[in-house]
């Protein structure tokens, strides 16, 4: 049986409401359990995670992995890759369900099959309800338009081919 690795934060445990559970993430978990051995990847303290999983009825997973000191790197993607290498060696890692686009890109580069779970409230800071909504400065808008015009003018794919 193949193994699916689910990153708990951002999929099962919502970033905006860490005490709750994401109903779509839980449905993904339940669905994957039908055809995969499910392994969880988490960065929280084991006693907190085990309690949280029990409260929300998450059972039937093979193991919940947490990064040991040896796995912690300067950035999240490197930490995740080190932990995934351990998971792959012990249980397999045929499919990774990931919520961080940067980590997902690095995981694909490292040869993993990755499904990105992107909730819109996590995609941009401006979509976070706690983020103060300040208008973008006009100068930034003008500079962005100028930058895009320059890129378009330099793009050889858009220029006509002379016969």
Structural notes for this entry:
The structure is a single chain. With 163 residues, this protein is α/β, with parallel strands linked by helices. 40% of the residues lie in helices and 12% in strands. The protein has a five-stranded parallel beta sheet with strand order 3-2-1-4-5. β4, α4 and β5 (114-116) form a beta-alpha-beta unit. α3 (76-90) packs across α4 (101-109). It starts with a strand and ends in a 9-residue tail after the last helix. The mean pLDDT is 82.
* String of helices and strands: EHEHEHEHEHH
What portion of residues is helical? 40-55%
Q: Gap between N and C termini, in Å? A: 59 Å
Helix segment tally: 6
Q: Unreliable segments (pLDDT under 50, ≥5 consecutive)?
A: none
Number of strands: 5
Radius of gyration: 20 Å
Classify the secondary structure makeup into a structural class: alpha/beta
**How would you state the average pLDDT, rounded?**
82
Shape: globular
Biggest sheet, strands in spatial order? Answer: 3-2-1-4-5
* Main sheet overview: 5 strands, parallel
Beta-strand portion reads 5-15%
Which helices and strands appear, and what pairs or packs with what?
Blueprint: E1 3-7, H1 23-33, E2 37-41, H2 46-55, E3 63-65, H3 76-90, E4 95-98, H4 101-109, E5 114-116, H5 120-123, H6 138-154
Parallel strand pairs: 1-2, 1-4, 2-3, 4-5
Helix pairs in contact: 3-4
């Amino acid at each position: 049986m193949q193994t699916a690795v689910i990153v708990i934060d951002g999929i099962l445990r919502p970033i905006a409401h860490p005490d709750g559970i994401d109903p779509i993430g839980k449905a993904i978990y339940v669905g994957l359990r039908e055809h995969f051995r499910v392994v969880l990847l988490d960065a929280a303290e084991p006693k907190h995670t085990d309690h949280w999983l029990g409260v929300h009825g998450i059972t039937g997973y093979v193991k919940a992995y947490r990064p040991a000191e040896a796995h912690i790197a300067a950035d999240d993607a490197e930490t995740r890759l080190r932990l995934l290498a351990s998971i792959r060696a012990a249980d397999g890692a045929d499919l990774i369900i990931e919520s961080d686009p940067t980590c997902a890109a690095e995981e694909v580069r490292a040869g993993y099959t990755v499904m990105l779970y992107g909730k819109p409230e996590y995609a941009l800071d401006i979509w976070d309800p706690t983020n103060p909504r300040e208008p973008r400065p006009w100068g930034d808008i003008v500079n962005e338009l100028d930058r895009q015009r320059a890129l378009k003018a330099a793009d050889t794919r858009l220029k006509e081919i002379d016969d």
